[in-house]
């Protein structure tokens, strides 16, 4: 839930999503859901020459499970708040789960 | 037009059987009505749709399912012992034979019910067959056997088919006498059929659609069995052709219907609600603020920033604004899912449910209780064997206190936990009492105050400030401050402290200043040291500066006395934080001595005390004045030194001023020369002059008066 909450704040920002098949897509984050599925708009593949078939694609929906990394704009991440949120999340977990 | 949609007037006769309202094409409303009746019928005949619809009237029967003792399931169900489909396929011929036999022996057997059940699927019989090959084969054998027995019935009919095992007794035809008199027309037969079918079915509201199929079968049978004595071969052929035409037309119509409304009624409204609730229960929890903490607070902070800049706040990304707008809808959803959530909470260990007869398992995973993918065995060796106080977050007890890093880090985390709880409490502060509710509001405020005080007290204990000095080195509180995490929490801690507590904190900090890691000379050589120092200057100094600027003279004197007494001044003054604190005390004391603000001018004794203290400090520092300047430091860093020198100069006597000027003469000249030379950009030069002037102005001088020896 923390990550969902976090990605919600990045909606409207430019992000680069690296997929597990080495495809890296840069685009405007349109939406994200609790499975961290990602919708991107105005996309551009990072290595366009390697993936010419992606040139015609303007927007995409990425299933959350195929994402390896998401490169974030550092300016729009509040790390202190993120730490607090992580602490809160930890507190909410049942004591048995570590 | 007749019921079946073809002309039933026999050759040479005028059809009397034109019936109103029995057109072959049913209107849309009738279709819906039929669908509803089909469902009702299915419910009555044991096709229990109720189990799919436990949204409102779920009786928690599933809770009584035995979930334990299924450890051996995997062994039990290993292999193909339970491959029922295969064995069914093997058994199919036998089943068919048995079925035929049974039908012969028990003429009134299941046929009507089975046929009516099958008629539910009649629009999609192919799909039905594909999906369930064996059962449908068995079912089709009913039809096959019916066909064959009807042929037999026809044969027997010559001998008098009232006693026919198939048609003799009244399942299909309650009044078998109907067949004794030769029917005058098909329409009449239909009429009869309708009556008899109505009798044998569960009431007049019996759905017409199912009856149609029933009657079709019957009519087909009748067409063979009863028409023979009356009709000629040609007529039969004609009839069959017409029936084929009807079937064709009917199939066309249904194809069109399925095309126009493909997945109509696949799910009932309650099905949809049920699925929706499951999905929403993944998202909505009993405390949306806690679960969406980052997003909510981030949006709130950003909106505040935007508003400060004069821009309207946005709610993109977060739903704080949207949440308020749709507050009622959200509340309703929350109430709806409350039960699901609480159900899941009641059984947190059980992550899946196996419903009897279901092929899959129902997972009860949620965002808070995700499916566990890794099984990590807990380490049995206790790390805290060496440190008794470390592992437990108990209040500091006398005895050996470890300041090992992991222990201190766990202290810091405990502080954060309490601080978060305190901040949460602050947000939940009861509103000011409204007129008429003072009593209630006062009660709420009192309760809130108590809880808040308990938390604040807990935080105070976690800070470990009250641990006596000298028991352990470094002091626990200083050990906390030596971590950047610990530094960061201080401004948030101070907000919840009482003034006395803040003073205690400041006293403890000043008394142990030497042991701070930001107080080391080599701090300025590596990036991490610089970072730590910056953090200290940004987090701890400003709030304490605010605190000191409101303290009376006596306390300032006490603090500085403690500072000078407990620490090596030369050592401390070479660090930026040390200088900052010295400057802070000196300037505050000077301000108070001059009687500014609302504070009383200190009395003689206090001033004498102060002067003594000042002289002591000065004598310690006077021979090291030039070493205060950090080698290779930037102009910005030098500001602190100049500011300190200025603070020192203000309270200095004439001789002390002279010592000061001689001590830093080199630095003054260096800066002035550098500023006047053309090597620096104008703003940098101005900065240097300003720095020097900080000090010189305190002495009543100015940089322009400095003569530069060329």
How would you explain this protein's 3D organization?
- Chain A has helices spanning about 1-10, 80-90, and strands spanning about 15-20, 25-30, 40-45, 60, 65-70.
- Chain A is of the alpha+beta class.
- Chain A has one domain: SH3 type barrels (Roll).
- Chain A has a five-stranded antiparallel beta sheet with strand order 4-3-2-1-5.
- The mean pLDDT of chain A is about 90.
- Classes of the chains: A alpha+beta (about 100), B mainly alpha (about 700).
- Chains A and B meet through helix 1 and helix 2 of A and helix 13 and helix 16 of B.
- Chain B: Its main location: cytoplasm.
- Chain B: Keywords: Cytoplasm, Nucleus, RNA-binding.
Key attributes of the depicted protein:
heterodimer, A: 98 residues, alpha+beta, SH3 type barrels, B: mainly alpha, 60% helix, 1% strand, RNA binding (chain A), Sm_dom_euk/arc (chain A), U6_snRNA_Lsm2 (chain A)
């Amino acid at each position: 839930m923390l990550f969902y909450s976090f990605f919600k704040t990045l909606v409207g920002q430019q992000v680069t999503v690296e997929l597990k098949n080495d495809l890296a897509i840069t685009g405007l984050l349109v939406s994200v859901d609790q499975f961290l599925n990602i919708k991107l708009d105005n996309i551009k593949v990072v290595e366009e020459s390697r993936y010419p078939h992606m040139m015609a694609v303007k927007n995409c929906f990425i299933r959350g499970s195929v994402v390896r990394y998401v490169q974030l704009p550092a300016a729009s991440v509040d790390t202190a708040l993120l730490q607090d949120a992580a602490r809160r999340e930890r507190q909410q977990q049942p004591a048995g789960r570590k | 037009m007749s019921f079946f949609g073809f002309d039933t007037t026999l050759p040479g006769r005028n059809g009397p059987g034109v019936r109103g309202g029995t057109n072959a094409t049913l209107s849309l409303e009738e279709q819906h009505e039929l669908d509803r009746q089909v469902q009702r019928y299915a419910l009555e005949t044991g096709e229990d749709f109720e189990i799919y619809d436990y949204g409102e009237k779920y009786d928690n029967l599933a809770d009584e399912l035995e979930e334990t003792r299924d450890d051996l399931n995997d062994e039990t169900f290993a292999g193909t012992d339970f491959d029922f489909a295969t064995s069914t396929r093997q058994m199919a011929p036998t089943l068919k034979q048995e079925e035929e036999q049974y039908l012969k022996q028990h003429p009134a057997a299941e046929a009507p019910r089975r046929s009516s059940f099958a008629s539910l699927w009649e629009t999609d019989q192919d799909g039905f067959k594909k999906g369930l090959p064996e059962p449908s084969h068995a079912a089709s054998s009913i039809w096959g056997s019916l066909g064959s027995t009807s042929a037999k019935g026809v044969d027997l009919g010559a001998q008098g088919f009232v006693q026919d095992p198939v048609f003799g007794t009244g399942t299909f035809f309650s009044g078998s006498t109907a067949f004794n008199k030769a029917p005058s027309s098909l329409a009449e037969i239909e009429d009869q059929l309708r009556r008899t079918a109505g009798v044998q079915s569960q009431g007049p509201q019996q759905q017409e659609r199912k009856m149609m199929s029933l009657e079709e079968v019957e009519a087909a049978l009748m067409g063979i069995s009863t028409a023979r004595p009356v009709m000629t071969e040609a007529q039969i052929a004609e009839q069959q052709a017409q029936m084929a035409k009807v079937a064709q037309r009917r199939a066309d119509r249904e194809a069109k219907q399925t095309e126009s409304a493909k997945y109509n009624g696949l799910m009932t409204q309650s099905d949809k609600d049920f699925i929706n609730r499951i999905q929403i229960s993944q998202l909505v929890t009993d405390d949306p603020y806690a679960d969406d903490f980052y997003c909510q607070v981030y949006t709130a902070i950003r909106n505040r920033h935007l508003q400060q800049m004069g821009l309207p706040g946005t709610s993109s990304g977060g739903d704080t604004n949207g949440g308020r707008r749709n507050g009622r809808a959200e509340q309703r959803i929350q109430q709806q899912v409350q039960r699901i959530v609480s159900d899941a909470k009641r059984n947190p260990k059980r992550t899946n449910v196996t419903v009897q007869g279901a092929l899959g398992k129902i997972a009860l995973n949620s965002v808070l209780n995700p499916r566990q993918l890794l099984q990590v065995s807990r380490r049995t060796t206790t790390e805290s064997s060496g440190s008794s106080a470390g592992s437990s977050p108990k209040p500091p007890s006398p005895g050996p206190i470890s300041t090992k890093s992991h222990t201190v880090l766990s202290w810091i985390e405990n502080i954060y936990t309490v601080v978060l709880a305190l901040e949460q409490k602050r947000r939940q502060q009861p509103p000011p009492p409204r007129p008429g509710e003072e009593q209630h509001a006062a009660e709420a405020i009192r309760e809130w105050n108590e809880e808040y005080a308990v938390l604040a007290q807990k935080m105070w204990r976690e800070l470990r400030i009250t641990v006596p000095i000298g028991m352990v080195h470094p002091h626990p509180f200083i050990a906390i401050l030596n971590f950047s995490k610990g530094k960061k929490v201080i401004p948030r801690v101070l907000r919840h402290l009482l003034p006395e507590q803040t003073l205690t904190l400041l006293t403890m900090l000043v008394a142990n200043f030497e042991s701070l890691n930001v107080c080391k000379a080599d701090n300025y050589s590596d990036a991490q040291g610089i970072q730590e120092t910056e953090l200290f200057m940004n987090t701890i100094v400003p709030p304490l500066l605010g605190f000191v600027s409101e303290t009376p003279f006596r306390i300032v004197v006490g603090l500085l006395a403690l500072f000078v007494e407990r620490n090596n001044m030369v050592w401390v003054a070479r660090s930026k934080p040390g200088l900052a604190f010295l400057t802070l005390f000196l300037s505050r004391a000077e301000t108070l001595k001059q009687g500014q603000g609302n504070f009383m001018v200190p009395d003689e004794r206090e001033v004498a005390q102060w002067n003594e203290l000042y002289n002591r400090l000065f004598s310690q520092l006077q021979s090291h004045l030039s070493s205060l300047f950090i080698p290779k430091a930037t102009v910005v860093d030098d500001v602190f030194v100049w500011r300190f020198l200025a603070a020192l100069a203000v309270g200095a006597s004439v001789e002390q001023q002279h010592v000061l000027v001689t001590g830093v003469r080199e630095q003054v000249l260096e800066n002035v020369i550098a500023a006047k030379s053309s090597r620096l950009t104008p703003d940098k030069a101005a900065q240097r002059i300003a720095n020097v002037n900080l000090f010189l102005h305190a002495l009543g001088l100015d940089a322009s008066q400095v003569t530069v020896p060329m």
